[in-house]
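PROTEIN ENTRY
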Amino acid sequence: MSAMIELPSIEAAPLPALYEHAQQALAECSRIDECFAWANKAEAMASYARQAKDDSLRKMADRIQARAIRRCGELLRQIPSATGAHMKQEGALLLSRTQAAEDAGLSEHQRKTALRVAAIPEPEFTAAVESEAPPTVTALADRGRQSRPVPVAAAAPPSAAAPEQLVELGAIPAADYARATEAQGALRRFAEFCERHDARRIAAAFKPHEVAALRQHVSTIDGWLDRFVTSLGG
């Protein structure tokens, strides 16, 4: 257990660069209606209809939020619960789980929600958020309420009965199953992107200084897909 530390407030916490870029892009898209100025009204109507039916942005936002709240819960579970607040180590008061959540700006409801989402077994969580209809954080918390994981600070002895496996994996390691589910979602979304966009137009939209890195990414993906396809059963 670690000594008391001062956590930054949630308002001052930095955000990943990609997350901030996505926020800015969505804010710009929300502020400006490009179709409104189109001279071809039929084309504008078709675009509006397509936007109205497209829920991919909402699904991606749901996935991002679900992963963020789960990671909060995972980090909180690494901190002792309330009883740890009354313990000391080398003269310093230990940081309790509740205090850590409060210092980070989480309400009691958010703390409980995060811990419940973190209680969902990883394969089940990944399968849910990568599904065609990712559940809300509230639905995930309800699912996590039914799980009763062994606390991190008091792991069960080897003789204890193993928890019930919610997904029948056979000989597949749980970690591999979770990664496979994640890959399935990523491949599906990329396939949908490819169906909607012309590869030549997308390639022409990159800046010259970005090309070298993109070629390296494509080379990595190409090699991975070759190994993936040749190893795929069925």
In short: Residues 17-159 form one domain.
